[in-house]
Specification:
alpha/beta, Rossmann fold, two-stranded parallel ribbon, binds nicotinamide-adenine-dinucleotide
């Protein structure tokens, strides 16, 4: 029998109770990695971890806010306690708060900056410290978005955080490469998840019409790209952003948001 690709690897995946993060956790576990699965919603975290274990994966739920330094350090400690090390960190948790720029509330801005930027930065830092100590390299992946590359109405704050993550990955190449740690981003385009469908029931139709490949992404599309960036096949790739958008950024037509309720 072939050794699974992620045999002997240990990963933290944040915001993984559902959506893209859950699919990354599922695929990593399916390929042999031990997983610390985080979500701010304890039930989602527990159910997701149970689902992965039921399919034979090794997975421990770790509920809490992924931007809280205590939770971040707790996840790294849990990885070391339960699996003996940490080799992969996926800063997937991110919040999308749409809003007109002129009316955008300071509170929404603070929340988006806190979860998307601060949480990802601190997880990268805590994971890199552990990986440096282990002296055997590692992989850090930050979850960006196509709107970190292209303009999109009502997403100024969110887009700024995603562009910030792209620069963080580039910048940390200097500090992490000497330790054999790669850091990259995956930048999904419109992706069908429980959240995006709840926000807009016409999401599949809208994005099928304006995506060159004729459909929005599904979580599996994004997870496949993430697994490549976390695998031995990407060992010489660092500081890069992998866009997974069915061709949308090549043309970037905006969806009709006239019926969208913006806060
Ligand atoms: N879905 C898309 O179309 C899309 C497109 C581009 C980028 N992204 C990015 O991909 C990532 C995942 O997106 P998604 O749509 O799967 O996410 P989602 O909104 O479905 O959230 C996934 C999980 O994250 C959890 N979560 C939210 N805040 C958290 C926090 N502070 N700490 C821990 N968990 C938290 C939620 O409870 C949820 O279960 C995000 O960073 C998002 O910005 C998504």
């Amino acid at each position: 029998m072939n050794t699974p690709l992620f045999h002997n690897q240990v990963a933290i995946v944040t915001g993984a109770g559902q959506g893209i993060g859950l699919e990354i956790a599922r695929q990593l576990a399916n390929q042999g990695a031990g997983i610390i699965l985080n979500d701010i919603d304890p039930k989602l975290a527990t159910d997701a971890a149970e689902e992965i274990r039921a399919k034979g994966g090794e997975c421990i739920a770790f509920a809490g806010d992924s931007s809280d330094p205590e939770i971040i350090n707790g996840m790294v400690e849990e990885a070391v306690k339960c699996f003996g090390k940490l080799t992969i960190a996926v800063a997937n948790a991110g919040i999308t708060l749409f809003g007109d720029f002129f009316e955008y509330p300071a509170e929404s801005l603070r929340k988006v900056l806190h979860v998307n930027l601060e949480g990802s930065f601190l997880l990268a830092q805590a994971a890199a410290r552990q990986m440096r100590e282990q002296k055997s390299g590692g992989r850090i992946l930050l979850m960006s978005s196509v709107v970190g590359h292209q303009a999109h109405q009502f997403l100024g704050a969110y887009a700024m955080t995603k562009a910030g993550l792209e620069m963080l990955a580039k910048n940390l190449v200097i500090e992490l490469s000497p330790y054999g740690i790669t850091i990259n981003t995956v930048a999904p385009g419109a992706t069908l998840t429980e959240r995006t469908l709840a926000e807009d029931p016409t999401y599949p139709k809208t994005w099928s019409a304006i995506t060159p490949m004729g459909r929005p992404a599904i979580c599996e599309d994004i997870a496949h790209a993430a697994l490549f960036m976390l695998s031995p096949f990407s060992g010489h790739i660092t500081g890069q952003s992998l866009v997974v958008d069915g061709g949308w950024t090549s043309v970037s037509p905006l969806p009709d948001l006239s019926n969208m309720e913006v806060k």
